Amino acid sequence: MKFLRAVPLLFLALSLPLLAQDLASFEKRTEVRTLPNGLTIILCQRHEAPVFSFYTIVDAGSAQDPKGRTGLAHMFEHMAFKGTPTIGTKDYAAEKVVLEKIEVAYEAYIAERDRIVGRDEKKVLDLEKQWKDLVAQAEQYVVRNQFGEIVEENGGVGMNAGTAEDETVYFYSMPVNRLELWAYLESSRFAEPVMREFYKERDVVYEERRMRVDSDPTGRLVEQFVSTAFQANPYRNPGIGWPSDLKTFSATDALNFFKTYYAPSNMTIAVVGDLTPEQFWPVVEKYFGQIPSHPKPDERTTAEPPQNSERRVALEETAQPLYVEGYHRPDYLDKDDAVYDAITDLMSNGRTSRLYRSLVRDQRIAAVAAGFSGMPGQKYPHLFAFYAVPLPGHTNAQMRTAIHAEIERLKKEDVTDEELQMFKTRSRASIIRGLGNDEGLATSLATMQTRYGDWRELFRQLDRIDKVTKADIRRVANETFVEANRTVGVIETAQVPRGPSAPPSQQPTAPQ
C-alpha cells in the first residue's frame, strides 16, 4: 500500500523536469504569427511522420446566435462543407444568379407568412411555391460532397467540425506534400463561402433537433434545465436552435453571421507536424493572407444576474428517471478555475471518485453519478453540475440526498492529502498525454492561444493546479454549492395505464 501511494509522487517528481524541458523544446519549435488581416496562425514542428494536423477555432458559437436566429452558428458550420465558387458547382455563374433569386423569393414568402394582421393564405402558398421551385432549380448545379472528397482523395483523414456554445472548430490531418492544397481549401471556404443547399441542410438540422431533443426525454430535460438556470445570458438558448428559428432564418442571415464572426481577427489556426518554417509560412501567407479583414466582433454579452432561489424543472416521461442539479460559477478566467477542476476530479474521476464510491459502489442506488464544470460552456459564467441515474427501485429523491451528503462533506471536511495529490498528478499526466499526438497538440495550442492569448498557458496552467489547497476546495464549495444558487432538473417515470386500453407498444418496461 505504501508503494502504491508513492507511485503518484514519483510520477510527479519525474514529470516536473520533463514538462520544463518540453516547454523549452516547444518554444524552440513553435512560432506564432498574426497576418496583416488579423488571422493568428501557430506552427509547431514535429518531425516524426510526414503528416500534419490542424485545428481552426472561430471564437464564436451558439452564444453568439442573434435574437430570433438561434442555431445560426451551427448552421454555418454545415455550410462550410458545401464548397466555394470553384468547388461543389457545375456552373457557379449560373448558380449564383439562382441563389440570389432564392433569397429574394424567400424574403417575400417569410414576410407574408409571418404577417400578424391581414395575412393572405393563398399568397403565402404561391410565394412558398415560387421559393421552393427556385431551390429545386439550384440543385442542378450542385456537385455534392466535392470538398470532402478532395480532402479524402489527397490523403486527408479525420475531417470534421463542431459547434459549441463558445466556439466553432474545424480540423483534419493531411500528408505534408499536400500543404498547399490544404491552404487553398481552408482559405477558400472562409474567404468566399457559398450558401449552397442551405434550405435543404436547414431541414436536416431541424430533423436533428427533433431526434436529439424533441423525441428524447433527456434532451428535453437538458434544454429546459439550462434555459431555466440562465435567465439573461445567451447560454439559455439551445445550440441547435429553437424550432421557430429553424423554420425562419435564411441563407442571407447565415452569410451576415459569417461576415460578423468569421473575421480573421476572430480566428486562430494551429498546425502541428512535419513542417519547417521555410516551407510553411510562404504558403500560409499566400493563401490565408487573401481572406478579407473585418473588425473583431464585440464580445460583450448580457451578464446573468445572481440567482436568489432554487429553480426546478420536472418532466414526467415514459423513460428512465434522471436527476441533475447545477450551480452558477464564474467563467474560466476566474482565479478559482483550477479549484473547480479539483472538485470535478475528486467527485467524478473514475472508480475512486467520491460520487462513484458512494452512490454506485457502496449504496448501490445509482447506475452512474458524477459532477462536472463547464455546462453548457466556459467562456462566460456557467454551471457546475451534478447528475445521477437511479437504479430500478430507487428514486431521484435518493439521488438528491446522496449527492447533497457528498457536497456537505466537501464543505465541512478537508480532502485528504492523497486525494489532493492524486488530482494534481492526474492533471499533469493528462497534459503530458495531450502532447503526444499532432491532433491533440494542435487542439490545445489553438485553444490556449484563443482563450488566453498565449499558447504557453498550456504549461502555465500547471502552476495554477499546483497552488490548489484543501482550504481552497472547502471555501469554493461553501461559496458555490448553496440552495439559492441551485437549479434542479428531474425526469420522473410516468405510469402508463395497463389493460386493453393501452396499446402493447405503450406497456411499461424496466429501465435499461
Q: How many DSSP H or I helices? A: 18
CATH architectural label of the largest domain = 2-Layer Sandwich
Supply the CATH superfamily name of the largest domain: Metalloenzyme, LuxS/M16 peptidase-like
Shape: globular
The figure for the number of domains is 3
The main pleated sheet reads as: 6 strands, mixed
* Percentage beta strand: 15-25%
CATH class term of the largest domain: Alpha Beta
Write down the Rg.
26 Å
The overall pLDDT average reads 92
H/E topology pattern: HEEEHHHHEEHHHHHEHEEHHEEHHHHHE
> What is the CATH topology descriptor of the largest domain?
Cytochrome Bc1 Complex, Chain A, domain 1
Assembly form of the protein: single chain
> How are strands sequenced across the largest beta sheet?
1-2-6-3-5-4
The number of distinct β-strands equals 11
Regions with pLDDT < 50 over 5+ consecutive residues? 1-18, 502-512
User: Portion of residues in helices?
Assistant: 40-55%
Intertermini distance:
38 Å
Q: Briefly note the structural class of the backbone.
A: alpha+beta
